[in-house]
Amino acid sequence: MKAFSRLLERLYYEHSTLGKTRLLLDYLRTTPDPDRGYAVAIIADNLSLPNFKRGMVLELIRSRVDPQLLSLSHDYVGELSETVAHLWPGKTEGDLPALHEVVEALRHTPKAQLPDYVAGLLDRMTSPERWALLKIGTGSLRIGVSARQLKQVLAQYGDQPVERIETIWHGVDPPYEDLFAWLEGRAEAPAVHEKLTFTPVMLAHPLEAKDYGLIVPETYAAEWKYDGIRVQVVHSSVGRALFTRTGDDISGSFPDVLEHLNFHAVLDGELLVQRGEEMGSFNDLQQRLGRKSPSAKHMADYPAAIMAYDVLMLEGEDVRPQPYTARRALLQAALDNYQPGGIRLSPDLPYADFAQLETLRGSVDNASVIEGLMLKRRDSAYVAGRPTGPWYKWKINPKLVDAVLMYAQRGSGKRSSFYSDFTFGLWSGNQLLPIGKAYFGFTDAELKELDKWVRHNTLNTFGPVREVKKELVFEVAFDAVQRSTRHKSGYALRFPRISRIRWDKPAPEADHLPVLEALLATGEGK
Amino acid sequence: MTHPRDWIEVRKEGVWCKPGDFYIDPMQPVHAAVVTHGHADHARAGHDHVFATPETLAIMRSRYGEAHFTEAEHPMPYGQALEINGVRVSLHPAGHILGSAQARLEYEGSSIVFSGDYKRRADPTCVPFEPVPCDVFVTEATFALPVFRHPPLEAEIARLLTSLTQFPDRCHLVGAYALGKCQSIICALRAAGYQETIYLHGAMVRLCELYQTLGIDLGPVAVVTPDNAKTLAGTIVLCPPSALKDRWSRRLPEVLTVAASGWMRIRARAKQKGVELPLVISDHADWDELLQTLTDVGAPEIWVTHGRDDALVYQATQMGFTAQALHLLGYEDDSE
Ligand SMILES: [Zn+2]
Ligand SMILES: [Zn+2]
Questions:
Q1: Which residues of A touch B269 (CB under 8 A)?
Q2: What is the extent of the structural domain holding A474?
Q3: Which pLDDT score is estimated for A337?
Q4: Strand A229-236 and strand A265-275: pairing?
Q5: Which of A377, A395, A413 is the last residue of a domain?
Q6: Residues of B in contact with A77 (CB under 8 A)
Q7: What is the pTM of this model?
Q8: Does residue B139 lie in a domain region?
Q9: Cβ–Cβ of A127/B310 closer than 8 Å?
């Protein structure tokens, strides 16, 4: 447990991918089984500890710390796990059980006894160790290591291609002793054919001007490119599963999608929200992504569907070596035959020449769920990775900028007690010029976090408006940009909305004003 | 018998002792100043008369020049009392940095102690804090929240040395306050057995030399120069916190950013500053030490100055003291 806490501590602050990789490799080399396997499971968020609740942690600390001091502290630190880690009374640091013992105890201790077990550990820990334990328990590490990066580290550790790791990943379970035995050359690769596994997907290159000449209807078929989630739906004799394109299992969030696939196959497609004929926005899909086990009502409000564009396995047969046109024909036939609700074939877009494709691309509405075109060689096999030539993606010009928060204002109605109305700007030299204002469109939890940030980072207060430190970056999406004489920046955005809070991005790395000029130019030239 | 509230006043220049007509750590040049320690937010140049420990006076001369005063220096060794216009003044160790002192004032039978900045844990670069009996104890509150509990210095130094073995190709650049923090880190590294040359940003050299002439052994230290900068992979370099992200640091190879401060306990704060290895090392008392000190000093009345006064006033009241916040402006609670 001590070694794992030290690892988390270093990963949390290390910002280079290379540095993180080195820390992880060192840890894997020096940590015995089964500890390292549980560490991997925790970092990959593959460990479920249903009895460990935030409420339990709150109750533990409330019974130990004066409420006034707790609230002053929580308000100052901002995050519960860290507040509790620092506040926990007592300084009797001692030996700790190994990580696997802790994990097993957290899994198997009956709910009623869990608080005592956790308190007993916290009593013996340093503040960083307490933080690690609480983070393991509540499952939101935020140490900046993605599942994908973790697989790359494992690949590097065993000197194997990352695709091999991805294939095997879903056939192995924590603490992955069989996986490590293989990576260290002590055993064969774990047998995973009996399990539901992820097949590495085929990826496209962006279409560049130099490639335009290649695109002729005899060679390349065209489809829409959707702004949903690329997924792989699997149904075999063993069961059903839904994976993201990097192989993360998201079956739990989409039981309705698993229901749709009523024949044995591995399909490649786009996960979208779809109500009858109408396709929902990416925002609708966001509503589904957050929920681990959605209610029936939630699934009815945001029905998930698959726009299928390829088939990898069909009724036990690997069809990846067949050409694209043949796979499409097989998929079409299977869909006609089984008539699955909620799965349809991404339509083929006939075109006579490249100019027609350009018109098609230009016709895409920015606010729709289509974000461009896919161009696929008719004779190409399905190959894992990103081979050059068979698949191109040709996106409409993305209208996104990373802007810096400058002012915050209280919202209205239900949100009147929160700062929810934000003015943001882009760099011009070393000053920021405001480019727009938007309401916040996210969850209540994020709103609260943001509100707290504003209150802690206020420079000046002008009535309901606060000027904040120029340190927080928003990814702002918008439909179009126009010139404006009313704004000092010289631009106005049409329908700006905050698409993401970039807690991770330093403000100096936000965009500069000329980026709008570029977006303006392509818009006008269209 | 009087009460200190009758003869102590907060004025725009700082805390003023009315009968003695002198100030404690004034922010502007005054006729007579009692200076608790050499940090810039407590010791300013240009007073007519300066009363301070010999070490603090040496620090002031080193920072502001031989003529930092206009009339006279009055060296006051720890524990030796002096009368200033009928007020009995004495200085006592505060354990904060070399020469740091608490100022005890006694007038017509009542007494008050200004602690200045202080800490309670052992530091080889200064004399440990001494509780001094008094009627009113004035305490700082820089880290007065129960989330601030500084880990042992040795543990933080061990983390730095571990990182150095794990990343031997990276220059470990440690941001630390030039006066006090820098030298106590060097001493702690030596105590942990680190024998190598420790490199210094130019702004730290003079104070380190001063410490050495005052008898604090720092071992081999050298200044970073344009010539040697490139060769400092795998070494420890100390610089003021402001230089961490400075153009200056770019000449060093593969910098691993380390910061040593009590604030480093708060994750978001460390991360926001781009610190990769935050070391919780402080010259100030943490929450437990603040409360311990109130008990050790035993003064019935507590005045709280710069920092988180709300939590400390609340807790001191809970503990049975009469407590109030003394709102002083100008002292940087961030200066660590
Ligand atoms: Zn100080
Ligand atoms: Zn101070």
A1: none
A2: 399-519
A3: 85
A4: antiparallel
A5: A395
A6: 147, 266, 268
A7: 0.65
A8: yes
A9: no
